[in-house]
Amino acid sequence: MKIFNDLLSSSSRNVSKSVTVHAILLAYTVIALFPIIVVIINAFKTRKAIFKDPLGLPDSSSFTLAGFEEVLLRSNFGLYSWNSLVVTLIAVSLVLLLGAMAAWALTEYKFRGNFIVTFLFAMGIMIPIRLGTVSILSLMVELNLANTLTALVLVYIAQGLPLAVYILSEFVRTIPKELTEAARCDAVSEYKIFFCIILPLLKPAMATVAVFTMIPIWNDLWFPLILAPGEETRTITLGVQQFVGQYVTNWNSVLSALTLAIVPVLILYTIFSRQLIRGLTSGAVK
Amino acid sequence: MTQQNQQDEKKPFPWHLVIFLAPALLIYVTFSVYPLLDTLFLSLFNTQQGESTFVGLQNFITLVTDDNWSDAFWNALLNNFKFFAIHMLLQNPIGLLLAVLLSSPKLRLSGTYRTLIFMPTMLSVVIIGFVWQLLLSPIWGISENFLYSIGLGQYFDAWLGKEGSALITLSFISVWQFVGIPMMLIYATLLNIPDDIVDASVVDGANPLQTFWYIKLPLILPTIAMVSILTFVANFNAFELIYAVKGALAGPNFSTDLMGTFFYRTFFGFQLQQGSASMGAAVATLMFLIILVGVMLFLFFVQRRIQRFQF
Q1: B252: which residues sit within 8 A by CB, 6+ positions away?
Q2: Mean pLDDT confidence for B18-27
Q3: Cα distance from A110 to chain B (closest Cα, Å)?
Q4: CA dihedral B49, B52, B53, B55 (to 10 degrees)
Q5: Distance between CA atoms of residues B131 and A42, nearest Å
Q6: For residues B123 and B245, what is the distance between their CA atoms, to the nearest angstrom?
Q7: Helix (H) or strand (E) holding A268
Q8: Where is the ABC transmembrane type-1 domain (chain B) (predicted)?
Q9: With bands split at pLDDT 50, 70 and 90, how would you rate the model's confidence at A158?
Q10: Is the Cβ pair A135, B38 closer than 8 Å?
């Protein structure tokens, strides 16, 4: 009887404990998502409904796409998104390719200066490239690259490489030596070893690096603002920043512009979240 | 055949090494290492009048002591420390709490919670800044009405608009957005703690709090230290949030000015003040030194002590 009592009380304590855990986590999840949801639902409502009932879902009388029309038709949001997409895709691909090549060279070959180069890349993880902006801008002006997407791509490659080289080097170390030694015995060239054997093996690590490199590039405001503020080269983050700043009083458009900027990231996040979380929890960034 | 020839034959010039390494190194050095060093160098010159003259440490002395500069500089620096302190006091403890809860054994939906709580971290700071600006705006009244509905209405204020509260409110917004990072990193470390260590402490009669305090906390201390240095670097480099919400002037009356916005204004100028590349470089150099000192302190004291503690 006593044993039964003990069992009962301990299981009810476990239940109440797990209820508390869920309550706290649920409460925090609501805090985390609430502002984003409020903005998205109100983007689809009439101005009157936005102010009268900010927390209500849009219904047949309050639903409108006026804000989106305003943003999409009277501003260059399509162009801005395209610019962001081009810059992010090219920069991330090159960070992955060049980062993998460098990581391979630094971990596989012993050569003079290896330590210095490794150290140089390691410093870049901690020291923000932003602090060199004064010189980056004058360099871009000299190279005739001011107000071009190329300038952004080059800076983002430089910004992304340190972490990429670090994570990929850690990964290259886990690849068994026998693999490359066997290939060398068969007189396979160093290039073929890298591109046909190593690169395919690096895929999972490269996916992690891609996610970590992509987010800061897509979200960056600083370099677009300084290196490419022109109408033709504006990225989506800069476009939203300037649009929202200009139309502060047009709530429909502001909420729609914010929604247009949020939704692509949310879609990307749901696609890549498993990869991102695996990258974080597998200790790749520790 | 001489020794030298044998060496040459064994090791032809490693072209593959150059081809693998050179592109990355070239871009990285040209657009990151060189500009950083050049900026440090430029801070020793004065380019105000179109010509640059070597002035040694004069720019730094001006920043720290000149009446036109020192107030703004010390204000931005102090604000930056406040910004950082609020992150350390709120963001990292909340992240730790969430990570501990998420890692409780047999918790259902932990993956969903993790994914959803991390979501704001993915969004641009610019967007987050505007979202909160709308939510907290007295015009819309969404937070005002919310506070009234839970009986705290009289405490509502235009928090983003007042000198006394604007910086703290912005810090809270930033904490809200980035709490996912400490949560994820600490969570990952907690998952990696072997079960038998925890089981052993339970068998020895430790309650959950004791297990956490004496077993888990020492094991996650290195991660907490790393989270702290990441927070430090990110906070002393912050710019977007203030710029999005308050503009380059970091109002009201510079109460939300951080080193990042101060750097932007110094470099590009604002309203009546002319931008100056060399003074901008001097501010960047000081930011560089602050971050470098922080990273050094971390590497030489914190990390070494933790390693000694671990073994």
Answers
A1: B161, B162, B163, B166
A2: 95
A3: 10
A4: 90
A5: 12
A6: 15
A7: helix A251-281
A8: 77-298
A9: very high
A10: yes
Looking at the partner chain, which of B27, B132, B285 has a beta carbon nearest the beta carbon of A158?
B27
The reported pLDDT for the residue numbered A269 is: 84
Q: How far apart are CA B123 and CA A263, in angstroms?
A: 10
Instruction: Give B294-297's long-range contacts (Cβ < 8 A, gap of 24+).
Output: B294/B229, B294/B232, B294/B233, B294/B236, B295/A126, B295/A127, B295/B229, B295/B233
Tell me which H or E stretch contains B51: none
Are the beta carbons of A219 and B125 separated by less than 8 Å? yes
B244 contacts chain A (CB < 8 A): yes
Helices (H), chain B: 3-10, 15-28, 34-42, 58-65, 67-86, 92-102, 110-122, 125-136, 142-149, 166-178, 180-192, 195-203, 208-210, 217-235, 240-246, 259-268, 277-297, 303-310
Contacts of B96 in chain A (CB under 8 A): none
What pLDDT, in 10s, does the model give residues A168-185?
999 999 889 888 888 999
Cβ distance A241 to B292 less than 8 Å, yes or no, reads: no
* Residue B274 CA: distances (Å) to CA of A35, A139, B49, B171: 38, 21, 11, 29
Q: Which positions in chain A touch B102 (Cβ < 8 Å)? A: 25
Judge contact between B164 and A259, C-beta under 8 A.
no
Establish whether this prediction's ipTM goes over 0.90.
Answer: no
- CA torsion sign, B32 to B36 to B37 to B39? positive
Q: Show Cβ contacts of residue B265 under 8 Å, excluding neighbours closer than 6 positions.
A: B248, B249, B273, B275
Single-letter amino acid code for the residue at B235: N
Using a CB-CB cut-off of 8 Å, the residues of chain A touching B211 are: none
Question: What's the pLDDT tens digit per position in B35-71?
Answer: 999 999 999 998 866 677 888 898 999 999 988 889 9
For the ranges A188-197, A229-238, B154-163, B260-269, the lowest mean pLDDT is seen at B154-163
Nearest to A163 by CA among A222, A121, A132: A121
205-264 of A, contacting B, C-beta below 8 A = 215, 218-219, 221-222, 226, 237, 240-241, 244-245, 251, 254-255, 258, 261-262
How confident is the model at residue B1, as a pLDDT?
A: 44
Provide the pLDDT for residue B247. 87
- Per-residue pLDDT tens over the stretch B263-274: 999 998 877 778
- Chain B residues 22-51 with a CB less than 8 Å from chain A: 23-25, 27-36, 38-39, 42
CA distances from B262 to A219, B36, B67, B276 (A): 21, 18, 16, 12
Closest C-alpha among B160, B31, B175 to residue B97: B175
User: What is the pLDDT at residue A286?
Assistant: 38
What's the pLDDT at B311?
40
Most confident stretch, A147-151, B8-12, B192-196:
A147-151
Cβ under 8 Å to B: A residues 21-60? 21-22, 24-26, 28-29, 31-33, 35-36, 38-39, 50-51, 54-55
B273: which strand partners?
Answer: B270
Q: Is A1 in CB contact (< 8 Å) with chain B? A: no
Residue A273 near residue A214, CB atoms below 8 Å: no
- The rounded mean pLDDT for chain A is 88
- For residue B51, report the phi and psi dihedrals to the nearest 5 degrees: -105, 150
